[in-house]
Amino acid sequence: MSPLVGVLALLAITVCLATVVAVGVGAWSLEAPGPTAAFELSADGDRSSITIEHVAGESVDVEALSVTIAINGTELTEQPPVPFVGASGFDGSPGGPFNREADPEWTAGERASVSVAETNSPTPETDDSITVSLDVDGRRIAELETTVR
After folding, report:
1. Which of 107, 59, 114 is nearest to 83 (CA)?
2. Where is this region: Disordered (predicted)?
């Protein structure tokens, strides 16, 4: 009877360990993380422009990028659909890699900019706080904050 109990105990332990390993492997994410890069944000209240400079790190595929802009904690009604040329809520065409006609790879040293139209809400004014979130394929790669000058 002892050998039978021993075999059953070993079988139960093996099944438990296999379950733990299967759950652990299932929890691993095999998705590649978003690009690692550093950015600087600036904003000009006179022109309602927001500029983001890619200062270092890996290049960013602008076609996979989503940009969310908030002023004093309130998101703009119209967000920039990067890349674009002429979009509702924005004046003119964006500068740099946010422009549909530009190279879609945003590399270190390049600046991207948008000008918020008066038809968008809220509009940036001097001393407002601006937050810009950059996401690639749904993964946040940067959250930047500055004060409008």
Report:
1. 114
2. 78-134
Note the pLDDT tens digit of each residue in 17-75. Answer: 777 777 776 666 555 567 899 999 999 988 899 999 999 999 999 999 999 999 999 99
Rounded Cα distance, 108 and 48, in Å: 24
Angle at 131 between CA 106 and CA 34, to 5 degrees: 40
Q: What span, in angstroms and rounded, lies between the C-alpha atoms of 132 and 144?
A: 5
Q: Is the CB of residue 50 less than 8 Å from the CB of residue 132?
A: yes
pTM of the model: 0.78
- Every domain of the chain and the residues it spans: 1-30, 37-148
Model confidence pLDDT, tens digit, residues 75-103 = 999 999 999 998 999 999 999 999 999 99
Task: Decide: helix, strand or coil at residue 2.
Answer: helix
| Distance from C-alpha of 69 to C-alpha of 132, rounded to nearest angstrom | 5
Closest CA to 149 of 41, 50, 40, 44: 44
* 37-148 classified as CATH 2.60.40.10: yes
